[in-house]
UniProtKB/TrEMBL annotation:
A matching Pfam family: TIR_2
EC number: 3.2.2.6
Residues covered by the TIR domain: 198-336
Organismal lineage: Bacteria, Bacillati, Bacillota, Clostridia, Eubacteriales
Name assigned to this protein: ADP-ribosyl cyclase/cyclic ADP-ribose hydrolase
Record bears the keyword Kinase: no
Species annotation: Candidatus Enterenecus faecium
């Protein structure tokens, strides 16, 4: 692909951004100076020669501009060329900043695509990746304490994002630090804040309304098999900050049994836990989520959480709690055999 001049690239971006506005170029070309007209014509000519666009002129303005395939792909080409000259540190930082900018736009109301749950999942994934990035590269950075402090807050907390994003932006402007980090190999951190080793075999994620009619019994069945469980009813102690302890539990569990019912839907903390576990599973590529549908159908699940619907479920109506506990024990044994 032919490399464009900076000016032609800017015009190409302008064309793509405004291709749904039929009268844009007529207005754009009104009252141009001779120099501006000459520059625009030169850029359009360059784009046409490069096969990026097709152009037709009339009365001093381009009445027809069609972006060709290479034109749409050029932005990806530029990014690939830029990434080829970047260190791994710079690539990871650029990715975090780009995704952070999209989160910022959504928080400001400039982006509205996707559901609230999908947005929550993206934010949780971003926070996870920022924490991984922090442990890989920023242990000696001047803003490390500010970053570490912000990471202690829940991902959905606007305060945390408002503190984190400017710190990361400042890193991108710190040329001395970037030069220092080029070529430096830090220890590999597993893909989900793995500074914490699994302390629990399973985290029981559920709605409080389902405790008495199902989850209490399931917890008891798991405990009978000697399985280490994070269950808020038994894991939280007097005086604990329950939000912090639950978030800690999500990070320290090998598996997550998610009891999904109508009571689970649209609850802040159940969906927060689900977002955390989906993020971990997507990042490390290892089975983590074990969904149980409770008094709902798989159709209900697919409608509410499409990202979970492709994960094999079991139905609480078809298995006893003791049977579910045995099924989980088999999953745990398989995992232990794989690791050994």
């Amino acid at each position: 692909m032919i490399k464009l001049s900076k000016e032609a690239y800017q015009v190409l971006q302008e064309i793509i951004e405004n291709e749904d506005k039929p009268d844009y170029w007529e207005k754009r070309c009104t009252n141009l100076t001779k120099r501006e007209d000459s520059i625009l014509r030169g850029c359009l000519s360059e784009l046409k020669r490069s096969g990026m666009v097709s152009v037709r002129w009339t009365d001093g303005y381009p009445y027809f501009i069609q972006v060709n395939k290479d034109g749409y792909l050029y932005d990806d080409y530029v990014k690939e060329q830029k990434r080829a000259s970047m260190s791994q540190f710079e690539i990871e930082l650029a990715d975090i900043l780009e995704r952070g900018e999209n989160i910022k736009k959504r928080k400001n109301g400039d982006m509205t695509s996707g559901s609230a749950f999908e947005a929550e999942l993206r934010i949780q994934e971003w926070f996870n990746d920022v924490e991984i990035f922090y442990h890989k590269y920023l242990g000696e950075y001047v803003l490390r304490d500010k970053i570490r402090y912000a990471l202690q807050y829940p991902a959905r907390d606007d305060y945390a994002f408002m503190k984190l994003f400017p710190c990361l932006t400042s890193i991108a402007k710190d040329k001395d630090f970037i030069e220092k980090m080029k070529g430096i190999q830090k220890k590999i951190v597993p893909a989900y804040q793995a500074k914490m080793l699994p302390e629990y075999d399973v985290f029981l994620s559920h709605a409080n309304a389902d405790k008495e009619n199902f989850v209490d019994e399931l917890s008891a069945s798991l405990e009978k098999l000697g399985i280490r469980i994070f269950y808020d009813k038994t894991s939280l102690e007097w005086g604990d900050n329950w939000k912090d302890r639950i978030l800690e539990g999500t990070k320290k569990a090998e598996f997550a049994i998610i009891v999904i019912s109508e009571n689970f839907f649209d609850r802040e903390w159940t969906e927060k836990e689900l977002a955390e576990f989906l993020s971990r599973q997507n990042r490390n590529g290892q089975k983590l989520i074990l969904p149980i549908i409770h008094n709902i159908t798989n159709g209900d699940l697919r409608k509410k959480y499409p990202s979970v619907a492709d994960i094999q479920t079991i139905d609480s109506q078809k298995y006893t709690c003791d049977e579910i506990a045995l099924l989980f024990a088999r999953q745990l044994i398989k995992r232990l055999k794989m690791e050994n």
